[in-house]
Specification:
Blueprint: H1 6-15, E1 19-24, E2 27-32, H2 56-65
Length: 66
């Protein structure tokens, strides 16, 4: 698996980098440098993430809500 580590997040914070993880569709996780992100995209033109790419627990929660 690829991903971010606590050490990587700490290092990014120390050196002033913006670290983004798990970016899909309209969602992302900002782990460092959140204040440098400019939210100026028009989300009407960004496609929703396909349900087949959701994590297993997210799919189960969505199915239970229906």
């Amino acid at each position: 698996r690829s991903g971010f580590t606590a050490w990587g997040v700490e290092l990014a914070r120390q050196v002033g980098l913006t670290l983004i993880g798990r970016c899909k569709g309209k969602r992302f996780v900002a782990l460092s440098g959140e204040e440098r992100i400019i939210f100026d995209a028009d989300l009407r033109y960004v496609e929703e993430e396909s349900a087949r790419h959701w994590r297993k627990n997210s799919r189960e929660a969505s199915d239970a809500a229906e």
